[in-house]
Model the fold of this input.
Amino acid sequence: MIKNSTWEESVFNRNLFSIKVYLVVFLLLSAQQAAAGGGYFSLGYGHVAKQTAGAVTAVAEDAFAGASNPGKLTAAGNQFEIGAEFFNPHRKVKRTGSGTPFDFSSNSRNSFFIIPEFAYSHQLNDKVTVGITAYANGGLNSEYPSKASSVPMGIPNPCGGQPANFFLGCDEAGFDLAQLIIAPTIAWEFTPSHSIGISPLFAVQSFESFGLNFFAPLSKYPNKFTDNGHDFALGAGVRVGWYGEITPWLSLGAAYSTKVYMQEFDDYKGLFAGGSFDIPANYSVGAAVRPNENWIIALDIQRIEFSEVKMLGNSLLNSLAPGGPPIGSEHGSGFGWKHNQTNYRLGLTYFASERLTLRAGYAYGKRPNDNHLSSTTFSLLTPNPIHQASVGMSWETKSGNELHVGFEHFFKETLTGPSALFPGARESVTPYVNALHVAWTWPL
Done:
């Protein structure tokens, strides 16, 4: 009797270990996907930010102040801008040398997204300006094709007699996360050349996961883990900012955004640590220098508090340890971004003529994971690529409207090294992104 109990326990432990290994693979792919494009956040919002790699905290040229620094809205005047980013991420992850069924090579086939945005500003008087900004975080979507895969011996097949997908679930495997933020803004020039502003942040999230049936036994809520269609959550936060024109050739800016606190996903509370996916708090400082009337040189430093969001900051291994908390609990597995991220951004603007403006920018963001971990398994968790560059132009038409076109490239980088899970195995991750941004501005 003792022997039979020991055998059953051994089978159960092997099954649980296999499920946990596949959970690691899924979280690695998810974290890499969410990070593709230089971090969880976009480089910026609006044509100026897109073309200068986000160096806009102290640059006041458009109405997108609610997405960066509400204080600078007083310099926007009366205008309306609408734009869209055509986002093209490429993501590939691979493991070799671990043996079937744990070796893999996968590309997400969802590689094109359209991300819209708009902004409006209206000057009430010579001191107060109001406006509204709507922007989105998109492209957080992976869909890995269904591939016939045999389930390891001794593990129940969640698909019955049908072949399982790469993650040993049913049909296609992946997820879809989208965020929309609406930021009404008011800015007040409280003294000449110095303004402060505030933007309440109202957020809507949409999420769906599918084909992840194999992981459900590790969840606190197994029926709230996968294949429940799209679910929605609402949230709120606030952003405040200051903008000052210190001299005719120097402007400074500073902004702070609280965490955007989101509702729990009712249908996916068994997947997210704590049941929700808050948007991290962040803050930035910036300076813009005008050496002459034709040039603006801008520098931004931004800090994002990834570690304060449970799904981002919790360790990947939390739910994998013996007796560890289940997925979906407060301390369940997350992406393991234990460090907050600092981003450095440099932007150049050249007023080539009365009608043509040229821009360029470069951004670098340090990885928020535990850098002392040499295994590529954990490097898969980092925001990659970490180097981004952008170029663009604005053309003013004879009627006074403006056309804006910008291109962003997130540089390809392959990280290769030993696996933390399988001695002797090798792992690699290769992401890169191209994005085209087009916008139109009407002066009002």
The chain has a mean pLDDT of 83. Residues 208 and 229 are 6 Å apart (CA to CA). The chain has four helices and 17 strands.
